[in-house]
Amino acid sequence: MGFQKFLWPPKLITRAMCRNITLFRPLQIAEEVNKLLDLKAQAQATFPNTDDVNVNQKFTLKTPKGTRDYSPEQMALRNSVLSKITEVFKKHGAVTIDTPVFELKEVLTGKYGEDSKLIYDLADQGGEILSLRYDLTVPFARYLAMNKITNIKRYHIAKVYRRDNPSMARGRYREFYQCDFDIAGTYDLMLPDSECIKIVCEILDTLEVTPYVIKINHRSLLDGMFEACGVPASSFRCICSAIDKLDKSPWDEVRKEMIEEKGLSEEVADKIGEYVKLHGNTDLVDKLLNDDLLSKNKCATSGLEAIKLLLKYCNIFNVADRVLFDLSLARGLDYYTGVIYEAVLLGDSTKGEDVLVGSVAGGGRYDNLVGMFDTKNKQVPCVGVSIGVERLFTVMEQKLHAASRKVRSTEVDVYVCTAQKDLVDERLKLCNELWENNFKVEYSYKKNPKLLAQLQYCEENSIPFAIILGQSEIKEGIVKLRNVLTRDEIAVKRTKLPEELLKRLADLNINGTVPI
Amino acid sequence: MGFQKFLWPPKLITRAMCRNITLFRPLQIAEEVNKLLDLKAQAQATFPNTDDVNVNQKFTLKTPKGTRDYSPEQMALRNSVLSKITEVFKKHGAVTIDTPVFELKEVLTGKYGEDSKLIYDLADQGGEILSLRYDLTVPFARYLAMNKITNIKRYHIAKVYRRDNPSMARGRYREFYQCDFDIAGTYDLMLPDSECIKIVCEILDTLEVTPYVIKINHRSLLDGMFEACGVPASSFRCICSAIDKLDKSPWDEVRKEMIEEKGLSEEVADKIGEYVKLHGNTDLVDKLLNDDLLSKNKCATSGLEAIKLLLKYCNIFNVADRVLFDLSLARGLDYYTGVIYEAVLLGDSTKGEDVLVGSVAGGGRYDNLVGMFDTKNKQVPCVGVSIGVERLFTVMEQKLHAASRKVRSTEVDVYVCTAQKDLVDERLKLCNELWENNFKVEYSYKKNPKLLAQLQYCEENSIPFAIILGQSEIKEGIVKLRNVLTRDEIAVKRTKLPEELLKRLADLNINGTVPI
């Protein structure tokens, strides 16, 4: 890892923003098609008799706005990415839970501020008033409070719903996956927090999307810094959200907003400006602990001490070189109460890629959310991270595309072909023998398929082996085993087939010639 | 397999009915709790000031009616069952797809008959009119028509939604999983159909829920039989749905319904009665092919020929002894056009279990559904099966419960403990070494946890190994490796730890002493 090699500080990009980065063509095409279908639907609504629909279908055949089907190839890639991520969670002893796709509307009320308008409501069909979940964090907090759970380490991978106006060409949808890992419980300072960072590193390493950097900061330090600079306490949150814009806007604009809209004096704004341009590691923490203004502020020093301990644990976990203490990191959500972090992919400049690809994970500590659901306001401290899996799917798709590799949507080992007519029973018999030996096997559902068509199917679907069965082979108790890629064929005794096949499949996997 | 050993014909049970069978106590308790919460919510709505809620939470903390959270233990069991099922689908070369949780309402309209009233609608928030999916078959047909796919073999495991009045004590919910496998494409007679049956057998065998029987029948045979008995063509479907009730009602009641409500003569009803009590195998098919009435009916003979071929393929696939040709099997859905089947679990009477446990899979051929979505009414023939995974989850839970086995909700290999104070850094260091060697490792998030508390955690969570680290071990470059179950401890050189741990974990798995 060596992000220090790249231009620094790069223009920082939040997850919200990175969802806007233009991706590759297939998505653009999909969006254009969807736009046209939307227009067609509108036209039909306006002029219902102008379309050529028949009795079978009086509406445009499409998925709802902002949603999509996932094809077998997309699903294969997603499942492969998600299973790698899940393995990391399991390595750290996490359990998984699931919650309903909808919640009582009241559960979501008052948790998302202005964004509440993006919540999908269900129709009132004479029962409870329900809404689709907007994220996985609020249902998690509801689950903890409802079941009086005071400590748990869990992951949850599921779809969430937002009535946004998404730009699908840019990879944003109204239905999308979230992938959250959280540790709830009353523990000692920075121990669960540092494991979250370790987990993000393991995930990004296992997906081989390096280089990346994990920026960290602390809400107490931000608050203490504001206080020390002379920001009135009532303005802390709104100044925080101004700072949060630094990843999209230059300092001058943010400064202007703080002065003209948020009412800070030029002097106070400039003091803040001096701090938020700082980033570094333990040396910077030590420098700030001796800073004239901050060293006198309890809030700031407690934040700095926490960061210092976090960096120490990151060092033990061998990830310190991937972590950057960055005072401009603010993160939008109000509910954070301690450490905050965000992982950003950096393009490989040696390959001429853009220096920044975008945010792929983010999170922090939120000690007061669960209490909002408890009648006695009992708190359960939490820290967690959300892995930006949609963004990672896209990055992995691009990587495969760049390497001209195709995703296999099945895992079939061998295809059983016949070379002559009227051998369907023999084909079924051999398939059954192979299934019973635990091989993944396909065959044609045509009674008398052409040999060429069968072999072509193998090539198109990257099936590594074909078995060819003819009258003479059956008589001799052998089969022809064909390597689909090299087209080499050998005769194998039928009794030896499972053994031979197992050996050859193992060879293929060792040599890594089977894609994905 | 030997269902012949049991009482036959047993009272047949459909999937719809088996969802009503009373299950075990935890679910009953859950329902009682939910009823009380419902009452509390009603009371609050009526007398809003009588409850002791505070500012933080003005509503009853619950999941929506008919839904539930899944705990870590439930999720572990579900994921284990689903991954075994998925392996079988993959063995047969199936791909997977996903579709949005909601569809344009029009997509669902006219597909479910009377049950349409159970569809969940989304609120009209100024866009398209949407509904939650009711099953996975209609979205699959929509997907095929929309993408002009004429052949695919896919599975789809996802939640569906029905505004039923579910009895949760009986395992019925408004949000539940479906697990569908379908083969679409124009192929030769009974080839894909028999593979569906083979797949159901492999799934039930791998889950070890034997004994079971797969009942089969054919819509053409039913239609031909009705015609031959003198039922007017316009009454075929409604007589079919009367026959479908034979699994819940005795013949006398069904006969009465056919005569008094459906207008059949007594003579016609009694002719039908003679047929629907028949069940057997190829011998029965041959007998019916020579039957006076049926042998003259084209529809009936084509159905019988199809069944005969299916039984032949089932024989090649080595599952013929698990298949029963049963003329009373009708299945409710209108859209079936060919073979229909249903798998029923039989209790083990030697163990004093009920003879019938219920239906766990069902399906059939539906050649006309995709055409309903195509503007040109282009058909894509389909055959498929839906695995009753919710029912299977319950059966597996009962089996574990009966065997007094606990489900592990994590897969942690080893827990790193310290025996003295101020060793947190050493614990983290060792954890990191083990993670880097790909072990699943946990440790306490307390800085100075008590040794007893750490070891207790291991026992409570069935973690097989604990490592104990103290000042003297660190100095000597060793660790104490403890078998949590036997409480045996040995000293291991730290450099040899990964090797030793790997060996001992492998031993555990071989001996099968680690639960699940």
Q: Ends of chain A: how far apart?
A: 25 Å
Note the quaternary state here: homodimer
| Count of folded domains of chain A | 2
The backbone outline of chain A, from C-alpha atoms, is elongated
Radius of gyration of chain A: 28 Å
Compute the number of strand runs of chain A.
Answer: 16
What does the main sheet of chain A amount to? 9 strands, mixed
Question: Portion of residues in helices of chain A?
Answer: 25-40%
Average of pLDDT of chain A? 86
Strand order in space, largest sheet of chain A: 1-4-5-11-10-9-6-8-7
Query: What is the third-level CATH name, the topology of the largest domain in chain A?
Result: BirA Bifunctional Protein, domain 2
Largest interface comes to: A-B, 101 and 102 residues
Architecture per CATH nomenclature, i.e. the level-2 architecture of the largest domain in chain A: 2-Layer Sandwich
Number of helices of chain A: 17
GO biological process, one term (chains A, B): histidyl-tRNA aminoacylation
Pfam families (chains A, B): HGTP_anticodon (PF03129), tRNA-synt_His (PF13393)
Protein name (chains A, B): histidine--tRNA ligase
GO molecular function (chains A, B): ATP binding; histidine-tRNA ligase activity; RNA binding
